[in-house]
Amino acid sequence: MSESNSAGMFSGRKSEGLVLVVDDEPDVRKVVRMTLEKSGYTVLEAEDGEKAIAEMKKDENSLLLSLIITDIRMPNMNGIDVINYYRKEWPSVPLIVLTGFPDMDMATSMLQHGIADYLVKPVEAEKLRSSVSKTLEKREVHGF
Amino acid sequence: MNNTDQTNIVILGAGKGGTALLDLFTRLPGVTVVGISDQNPAAPALEYAKRLNIPITQDPVQLIRHPGTHLIVNVTGDPDINEQVNTHKHPETEMLGGAASKVLWDLVQDESQMQAQLFQAEKLAGMGTFASGIAHDINNPLYILLAFSENILEETDLPTIHKQARSIIAAGKRIQSISQKITQYTRAAKVQDAVSINVNSTLDEALNIAQFATMLQDISIIRNYEDNLEVLANSEELFQVFVNLMTNAIHAMEGKGTLTVTSYHEDSFGKISIADTGSGIPDENLSKIFEPFFTTKPKGEGTGLGLHNARAIIKKYRGDLSVESTIRQGTTFVIELPYATSK
Ligand SMILES: Nc1ncnc2c1ncn2[C@@H]1O[C@H](COP(=O)(O)OP(=O)(O)OP(=O)(O)O)[C@@H](O)[C@H]1O
Ligand SMILES: [Mg+2]
Description:
The complex is a heterodimer. Chain A is of the alpha/beta class. Helix content of chain A is about 45%, strand content about 15%. Chain A is built from six helices and five strands. A five-stranded parallel beta sheet of chain A has the order 2-1-3-4-5, sandwiched between helices. Chain A is globular, with a radius of gyration of 14 Å. The termini of chain A are far apart. By secondary structure, chain B is an alpha/beta fold. Chain B folds into three domains: about 5-95, Rossmann fold (3-Layer(aba) Sandwich), CATH 3.40.50; about 125-185, Helix Hairpins; about 195-340, Histidine kinase-like ATPase, C-terminal domain (Heat Shock Protein 90). Chain B has a five-stranded parallel beta sheet with strand order 3-2-1-4-5, sandwiched between helices. In chain B, strand 2, helix 2 (about 45-50) and strand 3 form a beta-alpha-beta unit. The longest helix of chain B has about 55 residues, at about 100-155. Classes of the chains: A alpha/beta, B alpha/beta. The interface of A and B includes residues 100, 101 and 123 of A. The complex binds adenosine-5'-triphosphate and magnesium ion (MG). Adenosine-5'-triphosphate (ATP) binds near residues 248, 252, 278, 302 and 307 of chain B.
């Protein structure tokens, strides 16, 4: 398992896509990384929204970014604000919310705000992978 | 016949307005609803009035003429009725109609809606924070635990297996500590079993534990004890409360400061204050710190149950836990418990 935090798009085998994982808990990020790397995705990590943006400004990451998976409880931001924050920076990058809150109202309102999926931890590896691949397929079809 | 303390009221109109007013008037002391009328026999307030044993009629004039009525409230919305009232009512009977009665029933409606909303909001505040707080705090470590275990089943690299096993244990311990803190309650002592407790020695024991946290830090401890102070509570629980407050205080001082522990009595209360020279609590957080799961600590470090449990324990023994705080200067928590006369 690669611990490196660089995209590595041009080294080794071809990547299925570059996914940014934002969660303030390191072990959660590790789990998502592990799950997605098994399916050939390249994964970058950040502990909050600001770090995410800093991470993306490195190299060509921003151009290659295909998807963001994010928690919605952050130190300085919560809920819809988190979604709007990414929207402002990357209007066309799809978002998947991965959170510990099993909140139907929140899920509904987020989906209305156009997120691709609302997943509740603990999420099964298969479910996470299929959510990611479906989101990326849609993105190709609609040619964002 | 006219008792001055008593107001006899007649309601004309048994629709929505009549229902709201009937509901209000029958709850007011000193008010008697003499009767209610509506030309429509199926009007909702007629049914309601029957259940309350209040006379009903389809003929308003019969009610308007009723002797001993102080006030006629007309919520029929029918202008002809006003005329009938003026023709048939006793000279001393007053009438509330038109705009005045409409405003009255709007008020009544608004009040009952607001109460319903308030009630709902309070229910949610309690339940919502609690349930989603538990779910959130448990779901994170649960996810880590399940995902790493699954991976270990197929992982062949030994160092990776060991690393992930350690993460699994840490996650399991987090869940364990959450469940312990939640169940502190269910195992809790009963208030009937309150005994006299030597406050100072319990404080010393708690300080011994809290000092582990201060070992490598520049924190001095000052004790101001009133001799032989005793309060009524359970010693394990009181110990727990002290440790919670002291740990919070030490945490807030971030390595440097003074922890002052004072015991004294005032009237029928034994009091214990735990004061720190730490960060202080911002005003906007002061009202939240006793809520379950409110924490400003990073994920995995605080459950946010410490103060909630502490206050619940103190309240159980008919005491109080209060706080005063100045930002960047420090925080003082004061415990009040029924004073047990000392030896
Ligand atoms: N002495 C203090 N000084 C400054 N802030 C405090 C103090 N005591 C409590 N707080 C604030 O109140 C919050 C809630 O405290 P509480 O003891 O309930 O939970 P916690 O300490 O965060 O978690 P846990 O008790 O599980 O470790 C803290 O996160 C902190 O923000
Ligand atoms: Mg605490």
